[in-house]
Specification:
Layout (H helix, E strand, L loop, with lengths): L2 H12 L6 H4 L3 H8 L10 H9 L7 H4 L9 H5 L13 H7 L6 H5 L3 H4 L4 H5 L15 H4 L3 E10 L2 E10 L13 E10 L3 E14 L5 E4 L7 E6 L8 E9 L13 E9 L3
Antiparallel strand pairs: 1-2, 2-6, 3-4, 3-7, 4-5, 7-8
Length: 274
Amino acid sequence: MTWRLALSWLLLTSFPLFAAEPCESCHLETHRQFAATAMAKAARSDDFIQEWGQGGRNPACLSCHAPSGTEGVVCVDCHGLGPHPYPRLSVPETCARCHDAPGESTVRRHKTSLAARRNLNCLSCHVKPSAGSHGFIGATDPAFLRTAALLHLAVRNDLGKQILVAAIRPRTGHALPGGTTGRSVWLVIKGMGRGNAERWRETWRFGWWQGPKGEWEDATLAPDIGANLEVAEPGRQGTDWIEAELIFRFRPGPFEEPDPRQVTISKAQMTLRR
């Protein structure tokens, strides 16, 4: 049985089945907007199906990825079944039902952020600015993703030796990466020399780690704070300049495994002084 067939069977047997059609008849534009979002496809995206399969197809995952037994999130999962008109949703508490699930800390980390202290919430950034819009945007929008962080390079001297400092400064109102455990942010720093040759390379991964007993460890970048990474003697092996790249990846696994959807969030380059 393929992963997709297994998923369809679980959806049909494990969860009550609700659809968006009753709402669509009156809210056609809202339905059209939401149907194009990643949330509406949460249980049928290739990334989810891959990670869900590798994790043993735990039905508990579907309580957020397919709460009503469909291929993703539908109207009733956030708004409930009635009565009409529906009360205004409490944000971020409604979002926390899934975005603080095991392997997530998005809402918890948001509550510690500068954005929260400025009374900004999830909808302030993740909904297109029009009244009543349901056109949610997030990491699957490359242009939006490129606003998530800035990368800066500097060199300091420590007892006569050069130390390269790479500063990552998140611009999100939550930890980076947000979202599910499969997502990660990689910092790649390369020492470059004559002939555009790569002299050395160092990488760091930020995201969730799964321990030997299956437990999850949060190693994401803290909101507003980010991280400073250091490289000793960056001019080694004939290095003339430094190239650094902050990359967002959707698929789990080592950096060497290709992810055709990966997005470069920020780049930085500097020439070393001799």
